[in-house]
Amino acid sequence: MLFFLRNGKRHINLATNARRKNVGIKLSPLNVVSLRITKCVSILTVVLWFTCLVLNLSRDIHPNPGPSSTLSTSDSDTSACSFEYIMGMFSVYHMNIQSVLPKIDIIEQEIQFYDVAVFTETWLNDTIQSDSIVISNFSAPHRLDRQGRIGGGVAIYVRDSLTSIRRHDLEIANLEAVWVEIKLKTKSILVGGFYRPPNSNSDYLDRIHVSIDRALNTSIHDIVILGDFNLNTLKRNDNAKIEDISNHYGFGNLLLHPLTSPSIRHP
């Protein structure tokens, strides 16, 4: 699922990548997934700019959207240009990795093209030190490990040329989420990584709602959210709560087709 929020000068991108969709030409199964995800990231960036432009041209849709000299200097147009400017300044990546440690060498090669990488289902715990999952050209990961049982977890890697600060004040108990503030050349941006376990109850979505609300109440206007929410928006039972959150913040679902096969099930 992919959502985009316009709220004055605030922007939120809420993205969920496909899970284990093994489509590609490489021999390694993980590389196949990585190739697919890499393509998805590029496509999502294009879709985000397309939507941003459409919103600010009052739905005057063009087949090949891009910067236009006809844009005015109003607040909404400045806001749209700001979002494009931010996305042009740095690149983000998400993958449901299902255990970082044994795949760290492949991950290291994969994310060298990105500035920020968010991994869900890291499967880390207190016995695994961050030194053992360091990636060249990136700072030590900002991580949240699941406590009390195996699985889950979120980690965010930020390129070492960028200054990043963990925002614990935006994180809440019993929610697998990591927030990081990244300082770019002229402004700061918030990046949130979320994992929602399958079959979670509605309280979990309430906690996601609270965490996003905390981010919105900061002085930072540009927010990017990525993760695996394990929700099928084509099913009404799954869709009702996320629709409430979407309507509350003005989200619009930009992905019109499933990103994963119905035959794929979480273990």
What does this structure look like?
There is one protein chain. With 267 residues, the chain is of the alpha/beta class. The chain has one domain (2-253): Deoxyribonuclease I, Chain A. Helix content is 30%, strand content 22%. It has helices spanning 29-56, 75-89, 104-110, 202-216, 236-249; strands spanning 2-7, 10-15, 92-96, 116-120, 142-144, 154-158, 163-166, 176-183, 188-195, 222-228, 252-253. The strands form two sheets. Strands 7-8-9-10-2-1-11 form a seven-stranded mixed sheet, sandwiched between helices. The protein has a four-stranded mixed sheet with strand order 3-4-6-5.
CATH class: Alpha Beta
Placed side by side, the strands forming the largest sheet appear as 7-8-9-10-2-1-11
Q: Which structural class best describes the helix and strand composition?
A: alpha/beta
Q: On the 0-100 scale, what is the average pLDDT? A: 73
User: What count of helical segments does DSSP give?
Assistant: 5
Biggest sheet layout: 7 strands, mixed
Structural domain count: 1
Alpha carbon gap, first and last residue: 21 Å
Strand element count: 11
Task: Report strand %.
Answer: 15-25%
Write down the overall geometry: globular
Return the CATH architecture: 4-Layer Sandwich
Low-confidence stretches: 1-13, 15-81, 263-267
